[in-house]
């Protein structure tokens, strides 16, 4: 196995984008619990993201969701973020909370509704210009509930047409990332259910259209690291939405349900050149904190990514490759597991302290009094966007 000293420089490249909606109140279909200290404005969500960055050094950008995060002046929001030491990252569109989209948005049979959905994406691109964002992330809640309800193939054609129109509107330094999800809110079929469909759709657009992989959007048992390897091989992995799940799209803290899976994914990211200088894969969180405090929930999340990344970087790739070449099944697996089982927490604490960060960001946050302060100051925080 490699020594921790060999990976300290590589570790410095880690940047995990946090979602603005992680700071709002969220819940399930059954209940949204309000929590004290919840942001009342977009500016306060950005401030919370900046707090996560201040304690960890790992979260330099925050993703916005439009229209949840609509403000009058995105230029001012951008400056405000920069003053706090972070920047505005991915802009997420939203075509899932408008009655007009009940039967589809970009795939709807009515051209007026399709145009409305396209116009919404144009508005998102305007926001990107003001915020300096690179990525437009599109997740479409489109699909059908009953066999026969829609023409599956015609819907793909309309999807292509809509995506092309949106893609053509992007500037040369902007990208479109298309997220897939195998079910929900539609239950019979989803128009972008899997990486293959997302790949086919973005490949038809051009070089700056990529796939977004949300770790919670697969059927149980799916080998996600294989998808990562394949998309990197094809040069089409644009971004991740990290979270963890036990059953469905649970949006729990990344690495909480299955840290080994996160390790396996990050091994493929590193192996495929998806991390570090020269890579433009965006590592993002897409999570909600329904019952736990939100800022420390996000701190825990970015630390989990860092911890599993450190283990992935510790993997002795040369020894692994040699064992694979030899066909030594057990040795190869042992080498792979050795890095996973390495407890890197003390080394990471030291690494942080050397960089002027708290060795234990979770305890430092609790000790800082910040949570009590925002709970006193903020009365009447808003929901994440749902419900
Ligand atoms: C959909 O389940 C999703 O993962 C998409 O990324 C959305 O933008 C996000 O959740 C927030 O609802
Ligand atoms: Mn997502
Ligand atoms: Mn999701």
From TrEMBL:
Transmembrane segments: none
Recorded GO MF terms: L-rhamnose isomerase activity; manganese ion binding
InterPro entries: L-rhamnose_isomerase, Rhamnose_iso-rel, Rhamnose_isomerase, Xyl_isomerase-like_sf
Swiss-Prot/TrEMBL GO biological process terms: L-lyxose metabolic process; rhamnose catabolic process
Gene3D superfamilies: Divalent-metal-dependent TIM barrel enzymes (3.20.20.150)
Record-listed E.C. numbers: 5.3.1.14
Any coiled-coil regions, as ranges: none
Keywords per UniProt: Cytoplasm, Isomerase, Manganese, Metal-binding, Rhamnose metabolism
Record's protein name: L-rhamnose isomerase
Source organism of the structure: Phycicoccus avicenniae
């Amino acid at each position: 196995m490699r020594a921790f000293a060999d990976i300290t420089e590589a570790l410095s490249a880690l940047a995990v984008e946090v979602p603005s909606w992680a700071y709002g109140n969220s819940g399930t279909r059954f209940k949204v619990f309000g929590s004290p200290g919840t942001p009342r404005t977009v500016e306060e969500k950005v401030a919370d993201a900046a707090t996560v960055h201040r304690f960890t050094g790992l979260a330099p950008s925050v993703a916005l969701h439009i229209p949840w995060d609509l403000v009058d002046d995105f230029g001012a929001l951008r400056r405000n973020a920069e003053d706090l030491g972070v920047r505005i990252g991915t802009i997420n569109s939203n075509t899932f909370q408008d009655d007009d989209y009940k039967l589809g948005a970009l795939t709807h049979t009515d051209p007026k509704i399709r145009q409305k959905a396209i116009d919404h994406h144009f508005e998102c691109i305007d926001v990107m210009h003001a915020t300096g964002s690179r990525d437009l992330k599109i997740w479409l809640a489109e699909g059908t509930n009953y066999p026969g309800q829609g023409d599956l193939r015609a819907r793909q054609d309309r999807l292509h047409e809509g995506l092309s129109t949106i893609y053509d509107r992007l500037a040369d330094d902007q990208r479109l990332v298309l997220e897939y999800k195998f079910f929900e809110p539609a239950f019979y079929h989803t128009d972008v259910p899997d990486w293959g469909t997302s790949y086919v759709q973005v490949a038809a657009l051009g070089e700056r259209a990529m796939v977004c992989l949300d770790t919670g959007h697969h059927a149980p048992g799916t080998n996600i690291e294989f998808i990562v390897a394949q998309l990197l091989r094809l040069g089409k992995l644009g971004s991740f939405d990290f979270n963890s799940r036990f059953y469905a799209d649970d949006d729990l803290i990344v690495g909480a349900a299955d840290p080994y899976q996160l390790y396996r994914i990050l091994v493929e990211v590193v192996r495929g050149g998806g991390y570090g200088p020269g890579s433009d894969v965006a590592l993002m969180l897409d999570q909600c904190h329904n019952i736990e405090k939100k800022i420390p929930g996000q701190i825990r999340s970015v630390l989990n990514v860092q911890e599993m990344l450190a283990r992935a970087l510790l993997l002795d790739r040369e020894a692994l490759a040699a064992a694979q070449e030899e066909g030594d099944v057990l040795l190869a697996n042992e080498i792979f597991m050795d890095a996973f089982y390495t407890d890197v927490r003390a080394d990471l604490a030291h690494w942080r302290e050397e960089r002027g960060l708290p060795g234990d960001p979770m305890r430092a946050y609790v000790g800082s009094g910040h949570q009590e302060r925002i709970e006193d100051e903020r009365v009447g925080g808003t929901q994440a966007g749902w419900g």
